[in-house]
Specification:
The chain is α+β, with helices and mostly antiparallel strands and about 425 residues long. About 65% of the residues lie in helices and about 15% in strands. The protein has a single domain, classed as Outer membrane efflux proteins (OEP) (Up-down Bundle), CATH 1.20.1600. The strands form three sheets. The protein has a four-stranded antiparallel β-sheet, with no helix packed on it. It has a two-stranded parallel ribbon with strand order 1-6. Strands 3-4 form a two-stranded antiparallel ribbon.
Length: about 425
């Protein structure tokens, strides 16, 4: 009675949870997804920073100092110097300068494109992580459903075994059956109670796994409310339909495409180093004394300069030769990796699709096996208590019926797992 009250309290305190709700909780709690959100925010700032490179460069500088008397070695450096004594040893300057890039081999646009492509890559990585987290949650949720279904079946079987043991005990007391039958019946009940202990432990482990993923306390009881029977409309899709889905939406495919684009932009960036750079510049300086233009004056002065600046890095012609070759090889490498990714996607889709079809067939076979096992158990149970069959036959029939029910649950759970695996691979989860 105390055990029943405790179980009733656990059921009362348990959280009724659908898989969709579990995904929503994981989206809010998952540390992996929150880290990806930080990466996305960082990427957005880097894109804005890259675009700011198009703005002119502005700078300010100022200085203040004391000049020393100037030694002049009229008779050579080995002889004593004559000093030019300055009347005012003070020097100072303050100025502003600006530079506006007109053309630099399109490097600014390439820099912006790299930042935007990197941002796309981070977003695709988050999509992949989201699918992976959803799949982990689905797997944990279905494991818990499987374990709880097994527990229900084993409890039913224990009740049946107890009733059968009571009947056999009465027959033994009346001298109808041998003591060996009584011992076998007790052993069967003991085995099932041991199995129940193992299933309870599995349920506790599965509950903890799911709670960790959705942000609840480890031992918080959960009641999965989704139905176990498979009812997937999308399961009727063909293999080619899933291939098309993967081509359009798979994060892995998008990630591979982004990496190709990143390598191509790096190649363009190195080529841009060989192109000239043109820009507008301007300077405005207030200084003392005037020693920049002749004749010199011990007076402050203002000087403004504006014009066009052209520069060309000749060393880039030979310094970047091997860098460019490495960049070209990297582009070819990323294109090959994209093909390898596509091959792995097709292989994963094929495997999951075939396993799903196999599970759906197993479900139908398991249903027929249950019907046959029920009928077999009914016949052997009736014949045993009419002293027309052995207890071993009855216990075998009981075990086969339980096993058939287990197989049906396993096939249904396996079908769901392979279905969600298909959605994960194709970017639909």
């Amino acid at each position: 009675m105390l055990s029943q009250l405790a179980n009733a309290q656990i059921e009362k305190d348990s959280l009724a949870l659908s898989l969709e709700t579990a995904w929503q909780k994981a989206n809010s709690y998952s540390k992996e997804l929150r880290i990806k959100d930080f990466d996305i925010d960082i990427g957005k700032e880097k894109v804005l920073d890259a675009k700011r490179k198009r703005l002119p460069e502005l700078g300010f500088d100022g200085s203040y100092g004391q000049l020393s008397n100037i030694p002049v070695f009229t008779d050579g450096i080995r002889e004593d110097a004559d000093f030019i004594h300055l009347e005012d040893h003070t020097t100072y300057s303050a100025g502003v300068e600006a530079y506006f890039n007109i053309y630099s081999g399109n490097k600014t646009n390439i820099y912006v494109s790299k930042a935007e492509t990197r941002q796309e890559l981070v977003e695709y990585l988050k999509e992949e992580t989201t699918s992976a987290v959803h799949y982990k949650v689905a797997h944990a949720y279905l494991d818990l459903q499987r374990t709880l279904a097994f527990k229900k079946l084993i409890l039913q079987n224990i009740e049946r075994n107890k009733k059968r043991l009571d009947q056999i005990t009465k027959l033994y007391e009346n001298g109808v059956v041998l003591k060996s039958d009584l011992l076998r019946a007790k052993l069967q009940l003991s085995r099932q109670q041991t199995n129940l202990l193992e299933i309870n432990n599995n349920a506790s482990i599965a509950t903890q796994s799911l709670n960790i993923l959705i942000g609840l306390e480890d031992e918080h009881p959960i009641n999965p409310i989704d139905s176990i029977p498979v009812n997937f409309l999308k399961a009727t899709k063909t293999y080619q339909d899933y291939i098309a889905d993967a081509t359009e939406a798979s994060p892995r495919s998008k990630i591979a495409e982004s990496k190709i684009k990143m390598s191509e932009l790096q190649e363009q960036n190195l080529k841009a180093d060989k192109l000239p750079k043109i820009g507008l510049f301007g300077e405005y300086t207030y200084s003392y004394p005037q020693i920049k233009l002749y004749p010199y004056e011990t007076a402050p002065y203002l000087l403004g300069i504006a014009g066009v600046k052209l520069s060309y890095d000749l060393s880039a012609l030979y310094h970047d030769k091997h860098k460019e070759e490495a960049a070209k090889i990297e582009v070819r490498k990323q294109r090959l990796l994209k093909k390898d990714t596509d091959d792995k996607l097709r292989k994963g889709i094929k495997t999951s699709f075939k396993r799903l079809q196999e599970d759906l067939e197993k479900i139908e076979v398991a249903k027929m096996n249950i019907d046959q096992a029920k009928e077999s158990y009914r016949i052997v149970n009736q014949t045993y208590f009419n002293q027309l069959s052995l207890l071993t036959d009855l216990l075998d029939a009981d075990t086969q019926l339980l096993q058939a029910k287990f197989e049906l649950v396993n096939s249904r759970i396996s079908a769901k797992i392979h279905y969600y695996q298909l959605l994960k691979i194709t970017g639909q989860l």
